[in-house]
Amino acid sequence: MRYFSAVLAFVALLSASVPFTASGETMSETSLHAAATSGDVAAIEKLLSAGTAIDARDDSGATALLAATHANQVEAARALIDAGADVNAKDDIEDSPYLYAGARGHLEILKMTLAHGADLKSVNRYGGTALIPASERGHVETVRTLIDAGVDVNHVNKLHWTALLEAIILGDGGERHQKIVELLVKAGADVNLADGKGVTPLQHARAGGYKEIEAALAAAGAR
């Protein structure tokens, strides 16, 4: 009986010293995500020094680095990456700091992930590399950076679209997407690689009324 009481007292002491949230996550881990989201570098460094696990997950499976990337908190991301955070750690919907930074055009964070082991072949839940959503969303410098890093310009996602196809199908045909098409073509994008229904980039450009893109594709041998 005395032993049982001692065990209960120890468990109570442990629970008081390392509080947990409803999800089972320690409060220090919750604090690390909060500090990352708000860009509080001092708090991040203090928490890591106290032994908080750098790649601990929140309820969505996100690490603190992914939380910092969501908020485009560059200095928080830098502190975490310099301390060894995994730039390829994916959450429950298969986003990683590298993939999310590329998709959202968070260029400074993207460059940091590339310098710290970003997996250029990793894909999101749609089976696309970081280059594909970056092209769709018109992030010109991000596209340039990913091409220079060596991302496959002809990778095909689960929708049977390449970066070139997404730039045309989901783009607006404006200057940013014209430049992205130019960059992709120059980098070796296959201008005749059709979508899953056999529709080519040139045909999509014509259907969208994107004259400048149509002309650029035709000049590159598109049919």
From TrEMBL:
Pfam family membership, one: Ank_2
InterPro entries: Ankyrin_rpt (IPR002110), Ankyrin_rpt-contain_sf (IPR036770)
Signal sequence, start to end: 1-22
Domain of life, source organism: Bacteria
Keyword Electron transport: no
Sorted UniProt keywords: ANK repeat, Repeat, Signal
Keyword field contains Signal: yes
Repeat (ANK) residue spans along the chain: 27-59, 60-92, 93-125, 126-158
Protein name, as recorded: Ankyrin repeat domain-containing protein
Organism listed in the record: Ollibium composti
